Amino acid sequence: xxxxxxxxxxxxxxxxxxxxxxCGGGGGGGSSDTSTGxxxxxxxxxxxxxxxxxxxxxxxxxxxAGATVAKFLRLWGGSGLDVTxxxxxxxxxxxxxxxxxxxxxxxxxxxxxxxxKLSSAYGVKVVxxxxxxxxxxxxxxxxxxxxxLPYDRLVLAPGIAxxxxxxxxxxxxxxxxxxxxxxxxxxLQQQIAAxxxxxxxxxxxxxxxxxxxxxxxxxxxxxxxxxxxxxxxSKVIVLDANASIAAEPVTxxxxxxxxxxxxxxxxxxxxxxxxxxxxxxxxxxAGLIRGDVLxxxxxxxxxxxxxxxxxxxxxxxxxxxxDVRSYExxxxxxxxxxxxxxxxTQPKAGHIAxxxxxxxxxxxxxxLAGGSPDPSPVTNSACYSPITASTASWLTVVFGYDSATGTxxxxxxxxxxxxxxxxxxxxxxxxxxxxxxxxxxx
Amino acid sequence: MIKKTSACLAALMLLxxxxxxxxxxxxxxxxxxxxxxxxxxxxxxxxxxxRLAGSSSSEIYSELKEMQGKTVGNDIMKVHARGxxxxxxxxxxxxxxxxx
Lengths: 442, 100
Description:
A: about 25% strand, B: mainly alpha
């Protein structure tokens, strides 16, 4: 009896896939889509099978969700699947760890990723440009340069858009939210660095759902930690529109009341009416609050392409309703929405956007092969949050499909947070981050 | 062409054909939940978390069961492992065992 497992190991999964597909006969042109790229530590990219299903998939948005779905459509669908990724920017600036740019611990460049491996290792066609509109009936994506792309399946991964807070639009660079990593992140870092001892940093948190539930609390912690040693007597005032801490309540309650006691002042149930940039004052439900640096995080909605495509934003008028077995829109057939832009029960964050993208890629491959999506998908959310310059916490939730409600529900017993912020978690945070980015972009 | 066909047939016979393809397929999406931390197909980009590719199925399965059953301490895998049924853990383990 030949040891089957050993045989597979010897043969290699890529070769095996090619052999099996070759026997099947069907599929695309059989172009040689072998990968030669290597990752930062010499990890070899998996091989795209030489054939597989055929069809045209267009992906809009090359962030965590969009990059992942493009990669896995090719990896699992094979070279017969024509995958085009449309992205506005040449580089993706990671939101994850961008709070460490505020404290000077990370550079923006160290958090920048390209789409190069998606094309060189997986054969994804990357088009840099802006989408003007979608024609769901004609199944075409129209770009701003008047070109257009036909699709059999369209995946939208546009991330989030921000509401305007009264006053914020006239503030220019003086008041920024920096909730989308980019130039505002650098502006906020400079504002914090320029604070005097005894200064006041005011952070406001919108009602859920917003991008990265632990993110604002994490920001309060790392900014407080920075100010403590460099700007003695400074304060971080947190104004939370939610009734209580929206993520990792034990971790952040401990951080606010013990680790950063005397620096962080946390107020729940406070909403923002308007901002006066000339006096650096917030008009809030708790009265007027002045700060040397104001950092209001506005309420959010799905990225513009979702709002601009009639019917898609059918969850509270803000998010795209989807069938979480495939992430296909509940309004428009053939259009899938993954990541922060959909209105699923899952959190809006990079790690789970990656998981949603895989469920979507698997479903599209099955559908194009004449089958149907996995009836019981599983996803997971996981995240490490820095609490000080050398400690971090974590959270994890596993979600399973609940057929009774048609939603992803946390599996009982499989949701939790770290019992304390530790140095070990801090080190693990970078392992997690680097592997997550590798799984997404390389 | 003939050579290619016979090689394919040999491979199919050795692997048990469609049954194998089906089981690898069902484990793949489940196992992809591990990729974010352990790398695509269980091959990490950086060291620090376990490489899962190529470990034996029984080794991966027994480790996951052990994490699931932990009654003391608190680490991320103890919580995470509880998200999967026994059947799912077996499918995940088989998937990684089949990776290089």
